[in-house]
Amino acid sequence: MGSEHFDAVAADWDRDEQKVVRARQVARAVAAAVPLRPSTRLLEYGAGTGLVTQALGDQVGAATLADNSTGMRAVIQDKIAAGALPESARVWDLDLESQPAPDERFDLIVTSLVLHHVHALDRVLSRFAELLEPGGHLCIADLDREDGSFHGHDFDGHHGFDRDELSAQLTEAGLVDVSVRDCTEFDRDGVSYSVFLAVARRPV
Fold it and tell me: What is the pTM of this model?
């Protein structure tokens, strides 16, 4: 994923109330879909400014926030310093398209509106599976398949996802108990785009 655009917009990211509200909706959907406890080790991948981790709050335990944007990581560090995110939170510069999975394990991986930017999707899903503790859950919030109008003609990522195709890719990555449900919506330029939550588990 290219990070230059996100570096440029990071400082103002949280000023968009829609982004804050959507992160809360994603966090609510995650909490309804998988068991959360204070011992849950969370990785938010493509964390941006950490809004989903913020919204999950004390429903989870140790948090690691990964993003390949220098600007976004700087905002996360500022939030940690200000107490908006836990003092113990770790911040990683990580891009699983080009880097191997770190030698760590998590109980929950959450990624919100990130995967449509990922080109090597199968590789990233497999690395998510590697990073999960057996029995751990992956939660993906992203766009349903759309006509390309969301990003415009020069976007080279995915125009959303077909739910059945993504479910098959999650299964191919070695995950089980795959399910996809409605999550929230993303309003852009007067058009509403539906967002799903896909949930899968690493087998024990």
Answer: 0.92
